[in-house]
């Protein structure tokens, strides 16, 4: 837990004031409490986690349960209105911005997105259903992604259109360069 928190701190520019960092601290604590095997000790830790999560949700606007699987160097760039489903899976080096929803497509049906490594999600994007987002993918702002996105592509629009990158140079360009 502490190694992950140190890495999260470095990933968030070693800035204690970043709200995304504190939301990740609460998340990491929630994951860690499952490793405590002795139930009489785990019960107060669970209560403390639920209390922290309530205040984290209310203060930062980030709903991210500890059942979500998040890789290393996860960055919450801007806070507010972020909803992540408990069965979503994120790879390493992912970036999430404000207004992002990663979750279920239909109420009552299981299945949330699985994201690869180095996925950059723009503000207001919605990733819904049991889809797979590949490695090195950029999701445009306000895109609604309902289908799989292969490695190295860009998803923009409502519903999202998948645009393959032409070269490695395109990966360094901002998403605005691909908008019509």
UniProtKB/TrEMBL annotation:
EC number annotated for this UniProt entry: 2.3.1.30
GO CC, one annotated term: cytoplasm
MF annotations from Gene Ontology: serine O-acetyltransferase activity
The family this protein is said to belong to: Belongs to the transferase hexapeptide repeat family.
Reaction(s) the record says it catalyses: L-serine + acetyl-CoA = O-acetyl-L-serine + CoA
Protein name per Swiss-Prot or TrEMBL: Serine acetyltransferase
Source species of the chain: Granulicella tundricola (strain ATCC BAA-1859 / DSM 23138 / MP5ACTX9)
Top enzyme category: transferase
GO biological process, one term: cysteine biosynthetic process from serine
Keyword Disulfide bond assigned: no
Record keywords: Acyltransferase, Repeat, Transferase
Presence of the UniProt keyword Repeat in the record: yes
InterPro entries assigned to the protein according to its UniProt record, in alphabetical order: Hexapep, Hexapep_transf_CS, LbH_SAT, Ser_O-AcTrfase, Trimer_LpxA-like_sf
Pfam family, one: Hexapep
């Amino acid at each position: 837990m502490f190694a992950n928190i140190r890495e999260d701190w470095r990933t968030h520019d070693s800035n204690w004031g970043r709200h995304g960092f504190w939301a990740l601290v609460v998340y990491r604590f929630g994951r860690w409490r499952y490793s405590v095997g002795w139930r009489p000790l785990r019960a107060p830790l669970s209560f403390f986690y639920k209390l922290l999560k309530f205040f984290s949700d209310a203060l930062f606007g980030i709903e991210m349960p500890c059942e979500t699987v998040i890789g290393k160097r996860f960055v919450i760039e801007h806070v507010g209105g972020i909803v992540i489903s408990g069965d979503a899976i994120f790879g390493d080096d992912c970036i999430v911005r404000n207004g992002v929803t990663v979750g279920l497509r239909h109420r009552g049906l299981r299945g949330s997105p699985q994201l690869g490594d180095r996925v950059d999600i723009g503000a207001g994007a919605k990733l819904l259903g049991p889809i797979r987002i590949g490695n090195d993918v950029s999701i445009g702002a306000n895109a609604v992604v309902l289908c799989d996105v292969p490695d190295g592509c860009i998803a923009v629009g409502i519903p999202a259109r998948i645009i393959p990158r032409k070269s490695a140079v395109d990966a360094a360009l901002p998403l605005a360069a691909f908008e019509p």
